[in-house]
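Before going further, learn to read the protein records used in this course. Taken together, the tokens spell out the fold as the letters spell out the chain. A record is reproduced here so that you can trace the correspondence yourselves:

***
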Amino acid sequence: MFQNPVIATEERDGLPNPQRIWAVMAASLALVMSVLDANIVNIVLPTLSREFGTTPSTTIWVMNAYQLAITVSLLSFSSLGDIYGYRRVFLSGVAVFCVTSLICALSRSFWMLTVARVLQGFGAAAITSVNTAQLRTIYPRKYLGRGMGINAMVVAVSAVAGPSVASAILSLGSWHWLFAINIPLGLLAWGMGQRFLPKREERQYRKFDKISAVANALTFGLLIYSMEGFAHHERMDYLILQLVLLVVVGVFYIRRQLKQEAPLLPVDLMRIPIFALSVGTSICSFTAQMLALVSLPFLLQNMWGRSEVATGLLLTPWPVATLFTAPLAGYLVEKIHAGLLGCVGMLVFAAGLYALTALPSDPPDADIIWRMFVCGAGFGLFQTPNNSTIISAAPANRSGGASGMIGTARLLGQTLGATLVALLFNLTNAQPHTFASLFVGIGFAAVAAVVSCLRLSQQMPLKRREP
């Protein structure tokens, strides 16, 4: 197999302390912002719908625009990181994220906010695309697994902490501050990254595949836009045209990737059974999670009469539980197969969602809180072992591609979940105070549990590589 030459290498095995600590803090702070902003607006979707005069299903575009931008560009930024350096791509992403967060905060119309969210998504894509690859230059080889565990925990907690953080911010100001808060945090991450991230990295002598990048954007863009079309009852002739274009572009894209030695979409890694199963269960799990996280603020405010701040506080047990169970799962995966941990985690998550559907019309806060805790505990038990399996199943020289697939699977699942909520809102005559989304989420969590169990027939990558 052809090996891409490198133009620079880091002489040391990882960074020495305390530089390593500061570098991890810079990478983690930017990652927290980029992942958090995917869900931080959940809690104010009803407010935005009222303020801008848009329907609930249309307002969800504030979320989907961000997710769509990341999804169509994530793999391209990952490739740019291999060619031009992870540090350069990371710092550029943080800078774009800061500027576009300011635009979001100053938005005075729904479409201005939506366009700004698209641009903000490109900055987030640059940050997340190189995050895992950067860990290989920050940590010594013997501590890389520890770094992966911390990274998985940061992503898992950030993915569900949006409503809780939003509640704290909204208790002090308007929804504009949800975006304005990113500016000082982003500047801090940029400064720390500029100072402490490795300046010498491995880079590949190859040209950026612009054709694949365009095909990648069109494929994922058409896929997501077609799902949105179904959700919003777009004209059938338009939908058919979109699907035809999706098939044509998608086939061209996949065939081109199969011929590449360093494919933008790591289709070669999907031939590894445990890798492919882990990616599949990740998509299903994040679909279930987003079905719940998008619909719950509407349930809490429109059905159970809670305020915006109360909504965020009642959702807080979810990330708190994940914060505790994710590190525990990282330890357990060294002793217990990730397929079993993932199955149990998703079943616990499904049980938590089912318990939420059993709530009466005026439930006490305590009954909501413990159910949220169960959901977060189940998801945390699943997510860390699953991400570690995806990374460890790939060859060391394909860590960038594996990192891109972790992000792509997460974003596809989140976008599908948000789209399904919009579809269900429309099917219920724009009445978002039903449990339909939670029941569909239970179904996806059950599928994720089954797919996770299928991995039990495969040897764990970490175990296989032990001497």
Remarks:
- Residues 273-303 form the longest helix (31 residues).
- The chain has two domains: 19-209+260-464, 210-259.
- Residues 1-11 have pLDDT under 50 and may be disordered.
- The radius of gyration is 21 Å.
